[in-house]
């Protein structure tokens, strides 16, 4: 193993990242692991932090959240779960906790061991890299007591066994793709929106009723359908939350809206509760829902082959860190129902 690590630094917003070398992390906390990254995935959040100076982000930093690779070293407490050589996926929280060594875009990354899980031998690192941030975001909105407060998913829950429904707005997005699967594993009927192009894709993930967000009367269509039975809430997985808030306002039921994007003032009708998922509090915010992700349901479902790789990865580059900016530039142009990934060289 080389003694040096390479990291893609974002010195400030509005500039390109710069690759720099430093020693591989050797002094890690008891509940941390060091992972040699084989594949990175890029997220819209990375593009935003690169381009826009956000008040809660401390520059300079190492961007990135999604990694898949092999464990290099293990803190004393983490040995209960991991050993060197384990194949894992993990959620890197460097930007959230202002610790550059915990940002994903580097050859060796420090992870909180509770934000990682082993992957089956049959699963490629490329496929594994698509999950971390998207499933964590979806799970936080669905299962946290601060948001929709659903029961946790299991690998034995029968589809639609609750007799209740949920609306997922933006089902073909990365977060939406995970939200659909998590809700099916929780026993709910899933209503979702997407483009006509992605309708079969979301049905393949388990969506029961699909609506085209481009239809002029889509809000009324959705309200009619969800009011046929008890709906437990609305999860806005992508896009601005105005349409979801209008659905909640028009429904005869009282529906909470959990949104993965900001909820601007003036977009929430009177009587509707809508809140953005606050996902910048570090690992601690994910502990509450860890049984639905890295410490429970996800590794079980992956081992059983019942959780789909979605969105499908698209390899942008095999140049390692030198290919990250290419992936970010492509992401900024817009992608649909796929996850852009970069393979280490």
Automatic annotation (TrEMBL):
One of its GO terms (molecular function) is oxidoreductase activity, acting on NAD(P)H. The keyword Coiled coil does not apply. The keyword Repressor does not apply. Keywords: Oxidoreductase. It holds the Pfam family ADH_N. InterPro entries: ADH-like_N, ER, GroES-like_sf, NAD(P)-bd_dom_sf, Trans-enoyl_RdTase-like. SMART domains: PKS_ER (SM00829). Residues 14-342 form the Enoyl reductase (ER) domain. It comes from the Eukaryota. PANTHER family: HYPOTHETICAL OXIDOREDUCTASE (EUROFUNG) (PTHR45348), ZINC-TYPE ALCOHOL DEHYDROGENASE-LIKE PROTEIN C2E1P3.01 (PTHR45348:SF2). Belongs to the zinc-containing alcohol dehydrogenase family. This is Enoyl reductase (ER) domain-containing protein.
